[in-house]
Design brief:
This protein has about 150 residues and is an alpha/beta fold. The chain contains four helices and six strands. Belongs to the UDP-glycosyltransferase family.
Length: about 150
Amino acid sequence: MESTPPTDASSSGGGGGANVLLLPFPGAQGHTNPMLQFGRRLAYHGLSPTLVATHYVLSTTPPPGDPFRVAAISDGFDAGGSASSPNIAQYMSRLEAVGSETLRELLLSEARAGRPVRVLVYDPLLAWALRVARAAGVPAAAFFSQPCDGV
């Protein structure tokens, strides 16, 4: 299970500034869409957002387009995502084990490619991402979004 180096979703490839990795919860649009909006604001201010998603999510959804670069990590269920796991507890356990390793590889490959990650913005359901970032010397911040159910 390897991480996939980022690819430009468009010819412009983002803001060209500091590399910011955005790691939403895999396949959850209510978590992904607010993070994409945040990434657009970062790009507006000159930063270069990279959306990190699982191999399965990237194989089943279109890329977000400009200004995002896209990178893949593994959740251990590359062919079928969470639906191919026996239950959510096993999915979360495997996502943490395999995702931690492939995220670590991604952080290292970005640095080797001359695009060091300046900050990792992660979904709070993926608390293990903070440990991975700290071990790599990368600052990290949880991104909390709020549902609009009561509005």
